[in-house]
């Protein structure tokens, strides 16, 4: 099987054309000199978790942010690296495939070879299992030739296994030592980058010379924080799904007799559903975050959709499109509680056919109420993180069934005057994962690959490659690196039995911010989307011409570039130091003291633990 990795692909004419596309580099990554500015030490976003994070990561917590600078930048304290000794770097895919992943390899390879042609890049075959077994493929330009700007992870293969146990960490360390690796690059999402941080800490503790770097690549788009604006793959996933959704919208409008219930990717967060809604304008979307915040029950959701169907019928519209994230089922309080009881019994070895009789009375009543096909799916063994097998639970069919039952009841009672309710269900879960990546994902991934080399050249360990100001053209992107430990939070409590992650620092999925600008945009348009059929079809992925440079709506409406603002603040502080020196006038000194006193008072209040919202 290993022989199949890295073999040349058979490319279509479009794939050949895409393989010739050369992504652009921001000015700070051009040339053979690495210019890095390391400033103040980082801290945890939630001060209440700082002590715990510092205890778990004594060697890698509190490291400074890194900014990579263009040649024209005038920064006196910048580190200028012109000598590039030969290095060996290993790289692996972790987690589910995400469009653009191959371009991270390409960008890293090009950066290695530009700075020293004798550098070596080794890809681990089959993800973490390949790392443990030391199965590698040397990545060369010939190997990359048919994978540039292509989808999938098939050049190296992937895994969703964790690198967490003592045995796994030791196996990873042994591999890095045996292969004499100077760097290890882990490509993945929330879990994979948490593992990268823990590996970096263990390597530092053991004085292993290998530096560990993480790359934010996940189709769910939930690895977001003050340092990370977007994830590789999210742009492509949303564009491909938005076209499919728009096709369904057009079909519904043409036939005027079907309601399409479409389930989308999004386990812990509903970013894909939100972005696809803003791109394609379906009639309705139910976000898991809304359900959790309002504690909506299964019956609340059913009523909400039925009321919408009835309102549309009053406008002589008996069709529609409704989006649901796959994680919705776990956001419904009573269903989540039922799942926890089921999972507890499964862990105790109770067979699936005996579980119903051992549930608590209320859980048993809910279980028996649900359709048989859903009962069967809820009995599947949970994932390694205790979550349900969400891709296997047909939430869209459950909701459609409940809505149809209620609409038939209303029709019989005479409270609903529309046509008979007809539902058609779809799950868009895998159709977009292997897509050709969008132009944005091609550029973003390639740039992140280059950033990884810069991080290793600067001798940094336990960092994630970051690019900010992404909504602007590539030549205005800001490249840098942030310690992964600075992105971590500590859960104080958790739902469900025996949660091993409680009290342990980790990266946690960022959920949709119900106070953010993206959700506000959705709220402003919700009524219009529901009643007016303002369906919008962005069309298939565009690589040239109109639409080629379009970026995610949620990326463009949010006010981000945290790294850029940190740098701007540092510039202001430098100006203050320049103006307020011993010997300056009393008036200048008094004005500075007054202003600083006010600023520090305000910042102390804002940054106190009671003022910080801790994600759970």
From TrEMBL:
Allosterically activated by fructose 2,6-bisphosphate. This is Pyrophosphate--fructose 6-phosphate 1-phosphotransferase subunit alpha. The lineage of its organism: Eukaryota, Viridiplantae, Streptophyta, Embryophyta, Tracheophyta. Pathway: Carbohydrate degradation; glycolysis; D-glyceraldehyde 3-phosphate and glycerone phosphate from D-glucose: step 3/4. One of its GO terms (biological process) is photosynthesis. GO terms for cellular component: cytosol. It is found in: Cytoplasm. InterPro entries: PfpB_PPi_PFK, Phosphofructokinase_dom, PKF_sf. It comes from Nicotiana attenuata (Coyote tobacco). The keyword Transferase applies. The keyword Ion transport does not apply. Residues 88-454 form the Phosphofructokinase domain.
């Amino acid at each position: 099987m290993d022989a199949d990795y890295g073999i040349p692909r058979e490319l279509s004419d479009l794939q050949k054309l895409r393989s010739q596309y050369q992504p652009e580099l921001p000015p700070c990554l051009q040339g053979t000199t690495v210019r890095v500015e390391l400033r103040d030490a980082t801290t945890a976003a939630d001060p209440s978790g700082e002590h715990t994070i510092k205890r778990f990561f004594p060697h890698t917590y509190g490291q400074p942010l890194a900014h990579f600078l263009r040649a024209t930048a005038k920064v006196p304290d910048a580190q200028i690296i012109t000598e590039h000794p030969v290095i060996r770097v290993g790289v692996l895919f972790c987690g589910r495939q995400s469009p653009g992943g191959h371009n991270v390899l390409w960008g890293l390879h090009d950066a290695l070879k530009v700075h020293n042609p004798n550098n070596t890049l080794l890809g681990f075959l089959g993800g973490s299992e390949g790392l443990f077994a030391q199965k590698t493929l040397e990545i060369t330009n010939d190997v990359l030739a048919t994978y540039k700007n292509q989808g999938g992870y098939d050049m190296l293969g992937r895994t969703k296994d964790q690198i967490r146990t003592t045995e796994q960490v030791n196996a990873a360390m042994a591999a890095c030592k045996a292969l004499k690796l100077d760097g290890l690059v882990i490509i993945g999402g929330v879990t994979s980058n948490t593992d990268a941080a823990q590996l970096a800490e263990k390597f530092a503790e053991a004085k292993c010379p290998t530096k560990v770097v993480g790359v934010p690549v996940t189709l769910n788009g939930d690895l977001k924080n003050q340092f990370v604006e977007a994830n590789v793959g999210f742009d492509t996933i949303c564009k491909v799904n938005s076209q499919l959704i728009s096709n369904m919208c057009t079909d519904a409008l043409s036939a005027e007799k079907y309601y399409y219930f479409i389930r989308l990717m999004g386990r812990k967060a509903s970013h894909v559903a939100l972005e696809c809604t803003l791109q394609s304008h379906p009639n309705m979307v139910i976000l898991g975050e809304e359900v959790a915040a309002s504690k909506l029950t299964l019956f609340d959701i059913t009523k909400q959709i039925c009321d919408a169907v009835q309102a549309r019928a009053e406008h002589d519209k008996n069709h529609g499109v409704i989006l649901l994230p796959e994680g919705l089922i776990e956001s419904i309080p009573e269903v989540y509680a039922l799942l926890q009881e089921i999972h507890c019994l499964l862990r105790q070895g109770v067979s699936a056919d005996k579980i119903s009789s051992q549930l608590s009375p209320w859980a048993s009543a809910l279980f028996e109420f649900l359709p048989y096909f859903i009962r069967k799916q809820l009995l599947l063994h949970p994932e390694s993180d205790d979550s349900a097998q969400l891709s296997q639970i047909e939430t869209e069919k459950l909701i459609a069934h409940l809505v149809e039952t209620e609409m038939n009841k209303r029709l019989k009672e005479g409270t609903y005057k529309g046509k008979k309710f007809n539902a058609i269900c779809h799950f868009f879960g895998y159709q977009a994962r292997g897509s050709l990546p969008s132009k944005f994902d091609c550029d973003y991934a390639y740039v992140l690959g280059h950033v990884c080399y810069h991080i290793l050249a600067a001798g940094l360990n336990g960092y994630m490659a970051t690019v900010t100001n992404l909504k602007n053209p590539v030549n205005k992107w800001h490249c840098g690196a942030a310690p992964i430990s600075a992105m971590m939070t500590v859960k104080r409590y958790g739902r469900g039995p025996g949660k091993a992650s409680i009290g342990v620092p980790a990266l946690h999925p960022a959920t949709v911010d119900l106070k953010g600008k993206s959700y506000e945009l959705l709220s402003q348009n919700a009524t219009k989307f529901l009643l007016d059929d303002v369906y919008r079809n962005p069309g298939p992925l565009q690589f040239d011409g109109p639409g080629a440079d379009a970026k995610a709506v949620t990326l463009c409406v949010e006010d981000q570039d945290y790294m850029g603002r940190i740098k701007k603040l540092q510039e202001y502080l430098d100006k203050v130091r320049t103006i307020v020196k011993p010997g300056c006038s009393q008036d200048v000194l008094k004005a500075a003291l007054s202003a600083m006193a006010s600023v520090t008072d305000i910042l102390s209040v804002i940054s106190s633990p009671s003022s910080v919202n801790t994600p759970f």
